[in-house]
């Protein structure tokens, strides 16, 4: 009888965890907001610490596979762009990722970040201010 009860509790816990997952998780194709070109594939995931991160897993531009983050500082300086974590320390609140930062590998700078879904696409808002007033947005496409 106790085994059945434990099994039932495990099933309920698993279904609650699955419901808690966000559709933001997964692989996204980044799109250059100036040119419209597909630039890279970023995998957004939840870490064991409960925070959310986004890592570049592929570059879609020709001859870019060996590209380094030469403009980055600290431990990211001269690191391969493939494998670089560009979305960091985000928290899920009301279906959005907030309170973290995003790294622009083109200039090596960090910005305040907000990530959310709109019409099945991912919107990444990077800004100089926490309120998100001074910045720009990119629309990323789901990788199917």
Question: What's the gist of this structure?
Answer:
The protein has 144 residues and is mainly beta. Helix content is 13%, strand content 46%.
Key structural traits:
144 residues; mainly beta; Lipocalin; 8 strands; globular
Topology summary:
Elements: H1 2-20, E1 26-31, E2 38-46, E3 52-59, E4 85-93, E5 96-104, E6 109-118, E7 121-127, E8 135-142
Instruction: Please tell me the overall pLDDT.
Output: 87
Residue runs with pLDDT of under 50 for 5 or more positions = 4-19
Number of helices: 1
CATH C-level category: Mainly Beta
Major beta sheet, strand line-up: 1-2-3-4-5-6-7-8
Distance between the termini: 44 Å
- The share of residues in helices is 10-25%
Q: What is the general shape?
A: globular
Number of strands: 8
Number of domains: 1
Radius of gyration equals 18 Å
CATH structural architecture: Beta Barrel
């Amino acid at each position: 009888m106790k085994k059945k009860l434990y099994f039932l509790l495990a099933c309920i816990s698993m279904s609650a965890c699955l419901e808690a997952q966000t559709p933001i998780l997964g692989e996204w194709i980044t799109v250059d907001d100036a040119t419209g070109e597909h630039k890279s594939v970023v995998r957004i995931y939840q870490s064991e610490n409960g925070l959310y991160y986004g890592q570049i897993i592929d570059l879609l531009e020709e001859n870019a596979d060996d590209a380094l983050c030469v403009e980055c500082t600290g431990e990211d300086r001269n690191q391969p762009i493939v494998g670089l974590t560009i979305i960091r320390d985000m928290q899920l609140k009301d279906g959005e990722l907030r309170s973290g930062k995003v790294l622009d590998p083109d200039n090596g700078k960090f910005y305040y970040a907000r990530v959310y879904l709109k019409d099945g696409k991912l919107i990444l808002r990077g800004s100089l201010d926490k309120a998100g007033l001074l910045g720009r947005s990119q629309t990323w496409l789901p990788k199917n």
